[in-house]
Amino acid sequence: MLPIYDENRSATRPYVNYALIIVNIVVFFYFFIQGIGIFNRAIGFYGAVPILIVNGERLWSLFSSMFMHAGIMHLFGNMVFLWIFGDNVEDALGHANYIVFYLLGGLAASLIHIASLFIALPSLGYADFSVPAVGASGAISAVLGAYVLMYPRARIRTLVFYFFFATIVSIPAIFYLGFWFLYQLMLGVYSLTGFLSGVAFWAHIGGFITGLLLIKIIGVRPKFNPPGSIKRKPLKPILAGWHAPRKPFADAILADDEVRLTIELPGVEEGDIEITVYEQEVAISAQHGEIKFDGRILLPTPVKSEIQNFNFKSGVLNFTLKKEQ
After folding, report:
1. Are the CB atoms for 96 and 166 separated by under 8 Å?
2. Measuring CA to CA, which of 18, 124, 126, 198 is 20 to 30 A from 233?
3. Is residue 323 classed as helix, strand or coil in its secondary structure?
4. pLDDT tier at 301 (50, 70, 90 boundaries)?
5. pTM of the full structure
């Protein structure tokens, strides 16, 4: 599974998140294009070497290591997650607080990774204490922890592969990131028995828990960008086949004590439409012959489940939902 984007748009432009992504990419290619020798020496120098940190040496590498990556795929994976989840966390925290949060999360992740080496000492010995830890994944894991706590119901558009086929599905953040964390925890516990993978699972675990705790302690309230302020574009699924469902154009506007929805469903009939109303989300699907629509619409406020003023004409559906008092 590969996350593509989340359906939770930020209300502000995430300048800090953009800057973090750019810095990580620039730093990686600055050393990478100079050759493998210089690249490996940079990893060893700027990476956080546990034995040196324990001895109080090169403590600054706890921060520089956050901007170093061991390979292109390592960089790509981290930047995808930062791009998808970082904007909303920055939106909630504010620009200055976000960079502090990011660095604290990365610092805590590195320290927990080093602590895990002591726990695994009987199985692994001291070999891993000389291996430099690099990557933004610890700090990004803190971002993931913050995101799942503030936006558990936000949906993550995910590319899922089935042998020769691929399709895009929406997965609630609580399930997507919850499964991600459980996977890290499982392999993290397994690593304490002597399992060697080259992945700092406890940095991921530590960063994620740090993000949860920091957001809980700070008491930050998440920001929701009303869907009515965004022109939603239809999604073209990547599918090795025909007749994949399309995401309809949708608009939701908060007006007084109700939410007014306008949804474009060209080519279907009224009897083809199925609507399910949740507390702060509407799921809608329709199929007429080979024409298929399937989508979810985030609402700017909790609503009642009763649909009012239903009207479908010329491929355009309009209805209203009363606010939950």
Report:
1. no
2. 18
3. strand
4. confident
5. 0.68
